[in-house]
Amino acid sequence: MAAASLSIVIPTLEAAESLPATLAALEEGRRSGLVRELLVADGGSSDSTAALARAAGAVVIDAPRGRGPQLAAGGHEAAGEWLLFLHADSRLEAGWAETLRGVMAEPGAAARAGWFRLRFDDPDPRARRVEALADWRARRLGLPYGDQGLLISRALYDEVGGYRPLPLMEDVALVRRLGLGRLRPLPASIVTSAQRYRRDGWWLRPTLNLMLLTGYFLGVPPRLLARCYR
User: Fold this and answer.
1) How many distinct structural domains can be found in the chain?
2) Global pTM?
């Protein structure tokens, strides 16, 4: 039986600084033949994001600005049997390709989506606490955020309606439709930029994120939450 094909989707906006490391980490998947295509859904960057993506062999999709609309556009264009969604400032650790190949080959794997263990590119002990909280939230509540990546079969993605073009909480909206029973932790880690936490504070940023999540659950429109997030 032929190995399943994988499409990788990355939404970008002014990501020239972080994107090269993310793309470099994906090379092992391309060399091994696992990755069918790499799609960069760009929201109108004015820097060299698109040029860097094309130089790395990615297909650049011009998408409406906003992570939700960009993810939706990338997911629509992806042709692989499996889809992997990543943020532009998140890179997979070495060995990820072989790990995902094994996961995708497991019986019944296509019925569940997977998320990565979160790691930050910062030695601060407070980063370890935020990482632990993120993994607990994903395992116990079924709420992995987009910076933990998402591996999902094309069939399951279509079944639940994929990413919706929301201005914020597009990741939460999707995993809530999946539900805890159709989510699983992947045996691999993803390293994400801690820039926002360093800027806003290791206590304040998670608190703000929790407030936004609470607002979403209470029915606050995502467009209003997006204003607060910015």
Assistant:
1) 1
2) 0.95
